[in-house]
């Protein structure tokens, strides 16, 4: 299978065989281009480099909404000219294999389900914490069926004077401290009190978001990934303090939060959209 990770600035493509990433290439998206087909052509060219007659399917993860039935991608974040792209049809016409498309947070959850340390767990929520907050819901060993590919978008739910992702991701550091996540992580590692306090605050808000997830879909497991999650030692304590304030604490008896260690999860997650049979 081939997995494609469409980001805001680049496209990464990899070939997956028996759960192993055997080849990987990437290319930068022309940010100045006004032609949405430029990014499509880049994607097709990269896929072509890895394509052979053993490839049985292509999975694509995108930071936007998707009509899964038709494979139409809408409103991709950071690529303003991607408003309505029939990506499935464009790729299937070119490569003559089935193409599966979903948003990147759902791909993260699928990648963890198939290839991660907790593969085989049939019921969990995957959370990605980076520039923003995304989520994917696995129920009975599959993505939760939905109408518009937006179930699990807990980051966009109203919270305090904004939405959850304003408080639980890199957005929090940008909004409150005027810093990006990398800067705050560096300062926290160096022992800067304000940076460590920033993570503690973020952990408290993340715990509130996890409370909302528990009260919405009641998963026994949450798996957290993304760049912000790598600094978990700075926010785990306050995250759990906040989670334990849930109105029904008995639901936490068999509940766990784990952190992803899966390498190349974006590409593997996209490939995991392809059925194994």
Structure description:
It is a single chain. The protein has helices at 37-50, 87-95, 104-115, 165-168, 170-177, 181-189, 193-217, 236-243, 265-271, and strands at 2-6, 10-17, 20-28, 58-62, 65-67, 72-74, 84-85, 99-103, 124-129, 133-139, 142-143, 158-159, 162-163, 221-225, 256-259. By secondary structure, the protein is of the alpha/beta class. The protein has two domains: 2-106 and 265-271, 2-Layer Sandwich (Nucleotidyltransferase, domain 5), CATH 3.30.420; 120-259, ATPase, nucleotide binding domain (Nucleotidyltransferase, domain 5, 2-Layer Sandwich). The termini are close together. The mean pLDDT is 93.
